[in-house]
């Protein structure tokens, strides 16, 4: 059976085939990394000379900041703790400010969601979860709506940049799938290792996702935000001068273990679901293209 191209691009389903046990082969991993590198290179080559210079400068600035952070991480953490203490004294105004910031960065191409989550953890501890979760769910849903109904072509362009989203698109367009099946797939997508604001916009390209389903899935997966809060709490303790070097080292290790464990768990869940989607794609003989979907909508109007 011949697989059909997805969204105007060829999709080599063999490269994503899962081996027994639900794990992906090393060849598939290397191939995915190569494809990612090729996409980055194509994106860079398509930019204007001025934009290329800005991109190089941005990369250099990012690398410089990372090196500086490794050397002066204690100073940065202390400044963040000082800012969080000041914001805490603002009461409702401080909480409202953080809510607005999280809401705004939910719109692509904004970045900094993880940083905000960590900062909220420093400011409010575990009590900051309702604030972070509500701002995240509302912000991501409001970011999803314009890309679904107004900026659909831009959402399709964003979708083209993610092989993971392409695989799941066919399932969300399946008329035989139940509401709960689609919701399960959407929950897995919200757990996927995709940039936060990017996924909010790119998912608007999938016709099978309703606004209510998107908001529901975002709410279901909101407990994952506890990881950012945990990181913020531990970093604030590290900045406490009453802790000795061993205590600080243990807290750094706890952050690393929690991050690795959570990342591994979500990756395993996502990989197993993706493997099932790939097999389903093979069985059905391809996916429905987004471009044809748009053409059908235009014809009906």
Automatic annotation (TrEMBL):
<feature type="transmembrane region" description="Helical">
    <location>
        <begin position="128"/>
        <end position="151"/>
    </location>
</feature>
<keyword id="KW-0472">Membrane</keyword>
<protein>
    <recommendedName>
        <fullName>Golgi apparatus membrane protein TVP38</fullName>
    </recommendedName>
</protein>
<feature type="domain" description="VTT">
    <location>
        <begin position="118"/>
        <end position="232"/>
    </location>
</feature>
<feature type="transmembrane region" description="Helical">
    <location>
        <begin position="96"/>
        <end position="122"/>
    </location>
</feature>
<dbReference type="GO" id="GO:0016192">
    <property type="term" value="P:vesicle-mediated transport"/>
</dbReference>
<feature type="transmembrane region" description="Helical">
    <location>
        <begin position="249"/>
        <end position="270"/>
    </location>
</feature>
<comment type="similarity">
    <text>Belongs to the TVP38/TMEM64 family.</text>
</comment>
<dbReference type="InterPro" id="IPR032816">
    <property type="entry name" value="VTT_dom"/>
</dbReference>
<feature type="transmembrane region" description="Helical">
    <location>
        <begin position="53"/>
        <end position="75"/>
    </location>
</feature>
<keyword id="KW-0333">Golgi apparatus</keyword>
<keyword id="KW-0812">Transmembrane</keyword>
<dbReference type="InterPro" id="IPR051076">
    <property type="entry name" value="Golgi_membrane_TVP38/TMEM64"/>
</dbReference>
<dbReference type="GO" id="GO:0000139">
    <property type="term" value="C:Golgi membrane"/>
</dbReference>
<dbReference type="Pfam" id="PF09335">
    <property type="entry name" value="VTT_dom"/>
</dbReference>
<feature type="transmembrane region" description="Helical">
    <location>
        <begin position="200"/>
        <end position="220"/>
    </location>
</feature>
<dbReference type="GO" id="GO:0000022">
    <property type="term" value="P:mitotic spindle elongation"/>
</dbReference>
<comment type="function">
    <text>Golgi membrane protein involved in vesicular trafficking and spindle migration.</text>
</comment>
<keyword id="KW-1133">Transmembrane helix</keyword>
């Amino acid at each position: 059976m011949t697989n059909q191209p997805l969204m105007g691009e060829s999709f080599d389903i063999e490269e994503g085939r899962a081996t027994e046990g639900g794990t992906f082969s090393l060849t598939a991993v290397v191939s995915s990394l190569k494809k990612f590198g090729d996409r980055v290179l194509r994106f860079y080559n398509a930019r204007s000379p001025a934009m290329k210079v800005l991109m190089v400068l941005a990369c250099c600035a990012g690398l410089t900041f990372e090196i500086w952070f490794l050397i002066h991480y204690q100073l940065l953490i202390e400044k963040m703790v000082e800012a969080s203490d000041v914001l805490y004294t603002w009461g409702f105004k401080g909480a409202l400010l953080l809510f607005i910031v999280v809401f705004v960065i939910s719109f692509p191409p904004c970045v900094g969601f993880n940083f905000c989550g960590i900062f909220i953890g420093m400011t409010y501890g575990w009590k900051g979860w309702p604030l972070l979760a509500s701002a995240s769910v509302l912000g991501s849903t409001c970011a999803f709506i314009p890309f679904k109904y107004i900026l659909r072509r831009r959402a399709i362009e964003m979708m083209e940049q993610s092989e993971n989203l392409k695989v799941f698109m066919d399932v969300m367009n399946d008329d035989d799938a139940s509401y709960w099946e689609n919701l399960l797939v959407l929950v897995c997508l919200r757990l996927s290792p995709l940039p936060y604001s990017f996924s909010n916009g790119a998912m608007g390209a999938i016709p099978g996702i309703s606004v209510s389903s998107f908001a529901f899935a975002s709410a279901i997966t909101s407990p994952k935000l506890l990881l950012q809060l945990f990181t913020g709490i531990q970093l604030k303790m590290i900045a406490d001068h009453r802790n000795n070097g061993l205590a600080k080292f243990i807290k750094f290790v706890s952050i690393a273990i929690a991050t690795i464990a959570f990342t591994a768990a979500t990756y395993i869940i996502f990989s197993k679901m993706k493997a099932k989607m790939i097999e389903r794609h093979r069985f059905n003989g391809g996916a429905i293209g987004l471009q044809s979907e748009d053409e059908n909508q235009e014809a009906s109007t």
